[in-house]
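note to self — DONT lose this again. spent like an hour looking for the file last time. sequence + predicted structure for the chain T wanted, 179 res
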Amino acid sequence: MRETVEAIRAKGDESGVPLRRPYDDQLGVFPCLSVNLGLQSTSSPHTDDGNLAQSWCSITPLGLFNPKKGGHLVLWDLGLVIDFPPGSTVLIPSALILHSNTSIRPGETRFSIVQYAAGGLFRWVNNGHMTEADKLAKTPMKGPDLCETEQKLRWEKAVNMFTKVEELTDDLLNNAAHV
């Protein structure tokens, strides 16, 4: 994320003026942030298909509500309903997992802060600071095949960024051997 954000910042606007100050780890790793200020913020089941598929989405609920009675995080694909108290944070691959949250009781409040990475930012940088359509239009006759090959390679790289079950079991076995 740092490389992509810095590439966008360094490129700047159309006149070359940098878009913002340099990447700052103290501000967090996510280039995008949404604050939901509805008094009883809820979401219907959805995936965030505009988000970077191989990245996490950070969700933090805030407000005054009883997390045993409402405001639960629902991860539909995993069949999980999770207590999600105010001030807690969860990281999920929101582009890949169908998720929502449950309503809260009358008189209670629930806000949320969501941090994420929009996939379009990464495509923009990977395409030399242009859209997929502009890159395709500027590519020679073999362009569509080349663009498709690049997309497949990016997808394979993205999938390989996820931890594999074998890696987890190997780590567990290695740690158990040292105990």
